[in-house]
Amino acid sequence: MQGKSDLRGEETEVTVTRRVVAGIESRIGRELSAKMGGDISDLKIGRGMVRLRTERPSLLKLCRLLRDAMEFDHLSLLSAVDWDDRFEVVYHIFSYTNCCTMEVKVSVPKDDPRIDSVTPLWEGANWHEREAYDMMGIVFTNHPDPRRILLPQEYEYFPLRKDFKMDLE
Amino acid sequence: MDLWSVSYDLTNLLVDIVNFFIYGLGWLIPGSIGEAFDSLGDWLASPGVMRIFTILMEIILLIVVALLNVVTLIWIERKLLARFWDFRGPFYVGPLGYFQNFADGLKFFLKQIITPIKADKFSYFIAPVIFIGSSILILGTIPIGPEFGITDEGTPVPGSVILAFAIFAVAPFSILVAGWAENNKFTLIGGMRSAAQMMSYEIPLLLSVASVIVLAGSFSFVDVVEAQADMWYAVPLFIGFLVFLVCIVAEVERIPFDLPEAEAELVEGWTTEYSGMRFGFFMMTEYVRGYAGCAIAAALFLGGWNGPAIIPDEFWFLIKAYMVFVIFVWIRASLPRIRTDQILDLGWKRLLPLAMLNLVIAVVLKTLGVF
Amino acid sequence: MAEMWINMGPQHPMTHGLWNLRVKVDGEVIVDAMPEIGYLHRGMEKIFENKNYTQIGPITDRLCYGSSITWNHLYCMTVENLIGVEVPERAKYIRVMAIEIQRIASHMMWLAAYAADIGLLAGFVLAMRDREIMVDLLQMLSGSRLTYNYSRIGGVAADLPPEFERDCLRAIDFFEKRIEEHETLYRDSKIFLMRSEGLGILSREDAINLGVTGPTLRASNVKYDVRKHNSYEVYDEMDFEVQCHSDCDVYGRYVVRMNEMRESCNIVRQALKKMPKGPVRVKTPMYAPEGDAIGRVEDPRGEGIMYVIGDGTDKPYRLKVRSPLFVTLSAAKKMLVGYKVADVVSIMGSIDVCMGETDK
Amino acid sequence: MADKICDRPRREKVSFTGMVLKPMLTTLTQFVRCSLRGRPNTILYPRERQVLPPRYRGKHLLSFTKCIGCGQCVDICPNDCMWMKKIVDPELGKIERPGVDYARCLFCGFCVEICPTDALIMTSEYELSSYDREGMAFEPESLRKDDIVVHEPKQSIKVPAVDFDKCTGKEQCAKVCPVQCIRMVDVDKTGKRMPVIDLTICTQCGKCAEVCPEKAIEMREKLVVMFERPLPVLELEKCTGCGACFRACPSQVIYMAEMPGTEKTLAGGKKGKPKKRAVFALEKCVGCSRCANACRFDALSMVPESKLTSAGKGDAGKKGAGKK
Is the domain of D160 the same as that of D98? Predict the structure, then answer.
């Protein structure tokens, strides 16, 4: 390319992300079910995604496995969903190495909305978790900075819960 | 026709008008009070008093002319910046938007002047007075033409260069006071930066001026300019001229050295809490200092009012000063602002040695008898 | 001088929006930083839950006023994933073209804002002027200047206007010349290099762990671009190079963005060339099925993700937006500590802050 | 911050002045170019105006004659900035037309896009400011311009539209249709077989309109609106035949058909008028759900087109359609 902005002209060594591996999703799925056993359920594979469901106690174990052994190094999205009977925290974890997304769903009961924080593993989860607390009231234990993020600190409600009705004139 | 005789005539006229009333009162009121009026009129018309009034009148005339130039400079800057950046600049008010500055000044007058509650009231009030007063005072020291400067019956003020730079050096004090008095972290940092920057740039500035004085052998603007009749000092003292330009840009706080009032990081720095016309005066004073810097550069390095006699000497001087200002505008139009530590680095590590070198060149030239 | 906290914001020229960067300084050196956001929170996600799928469209434009087409497209793509609609081929090409034009406009706006930050007013004015070229193209295409509302679920709002192709190619050619002109203001300016090199260093490991995406990540020596490695629409048919830089500093981010603009010009040309004839929109059902879907795009500022859950009605049950800057801002401390107060503007300016998407 | 220092070698030092001159040269070229061309980039706004593209989304214009008052623009507006105003017009009689509140308007253009008759367009007029909030709410009269020029008219198709008042059920159309998109369906208890036209199959050949002996089918122009709209479905048990939906319909979709055999015997032994029911010529329907809103007996429900397709066509479809 002409007129490249980099004046230095040196060939810099850049790590190329993608190692295209066919069927990486199913391999990851197999590996996960071998290592996690009964801790995961609802394993679905498709569209470059591995979807599964796990329980609260085994979340950290799964996440540590994902990060350390399987190179899932980027927590791209953490969303909290308010279902009728439970909360659900959905993690979308991405791997720069093999371009595969992992969707992990964890149910959180409504009367005890606590879940382990994954911030020690991925620092990028920090503000996502604060937002999930802010909007849904899910408490992340061991979070380094468990304050509200978007709303005022003294605000009493959790506005994205379904019982918080929007006042539509 | 020189400034002294014009101001003498003007003062004479004024004193005559005033004395007409005073003598009239003395004629109307009988007794000792009337005599007192008569003697007051005599005192006013006495040569000593007339001399003082004439000098005052000179200062007023000179400053009015200089301020008109300042306004023109602001207009030139706005128009030029606009062309450098592909837009039009002031357009609507007056011919080619010339009166836009007056409109802006009027707007500043209409704004409320807010004093922060926690500000140190006295310093907050006195800082702009010192800043503006000292800056306008510089204008009085710079003669625009051979006969258009402050003279005492035709004798120019001795040591006006020294006086001008002494007054130039007052500003950091007022800026520091202003930054402190506003009781705001940004202004404090801005004031500190400004003081550090101005103080560190005084030294190379004065060194480069010293080289000029060495060559000219006089502290008076008039003598320095007269000494350049054959050759501008910018030619032998080219290094000194560059150092002087850079230092003057830093002294008058223009981009790229405007970090005391860097609007992106310090929100206009030490002027943050000033509002209304006080801020307006600050802004104007910046340009007054800019004009003073350009005029000094023109006088010290570019031969002042020396030039072919096609146009009057005063215009030669102004044209040179304006050209220096255009360079300032051009620099402003194309360079980003640099950082505090970098500006100090530049001042101490680059400009100071260069200024010393320049001084050595001047001394050598003088010793060899070239000048 | 003793250590003190300085509030840079919410009303501060550095913020480009409304947020508060609290920095603790020791003299002029930063020892701690704490970004605080939420001043522009509009409750977007709650609004989404109360509108039907069609009506959400124009509101997603308001997520980021700098690159509204991208967000609008991301929303449409996510909902298409959810209801399983295949978009006509021509619409895909038009979308790619519009997104890339928008990317140029957005990067140009970043350049302008960044130039104003470091005091280079010429850069500000000239970059804003040249952004107009792209805005005019998008205005021609969609009929609006800022919030375009051009993508629809199932295609795009309208086909290319007559003579758009000619104008677009002309504008792109002209713009590429202009980029060179801009580069001389930055690349060849010693003062700009003094203000950008070696500042705000975010190492590769930190960048990945903090979840930073987009040009900031690529300037931290990670060659990852959603368009290339997780391709959507027709990006896999486009020939372009992922720009990255190994400097991990402000200058690297500048280089990445400038080169991305050039790549975008190429992509627009290719999209116009390869664009097939055909319809640009299909009719989509009002009601989305139950289930969830995610959409993932390369926003000019990073990786934008939407996660939508449908419950069989015409309103989404939950629509979660992952805005790239929400995460990038949380890395502010890592980038700032150890540098000078004067560098805050340069470092924070280099990540292209847009509060609309951050606060949602 | 030792760990923050990148280990790459920095670029070799360049002298201060040498690197300052190049950007200054750039601005100088800019200066020369701008001065020589003599036309800087700015637009002197009140004197000069920007040339806006025909697609520009500004103030609306509304054709009162084209508008049928269906109110779909009001329905789709994401920001509730439109409302229907009841007007008595000397020429058009009692009508309802939309007004726009520009203080809330997003200028998204959905109202124009959904309009089934191209009665609403957006112009390039953008100076809409006013001194108070009320001044921003534009009544339909101030938007009125009956002879508007639509820059990009919506794609239109000719569809056969049945007029049930004329139709006598001779079944010619169903026989002649080459793709068999017309089916004759028993309308419950009316004793009448009515043609149901499936627009998804119809090729717009127009043979049915030619062949119809009563001229009950005419080829009408229908604009293609890309938004899916719901269609009305009638529950006959709840219908009382009051005709509220018939009066509410802006698009002449609904016809009141008499149902023989439901006459009440009056006191004098005479037979009264038979009960009526609504029948729908859905090919004309724009999906505005005015009929459903007008129905006081919950007999009408709006079902989206896609669900309707899977369940069968129309109310008649529910009851053994397709058997013929």
Answer: no
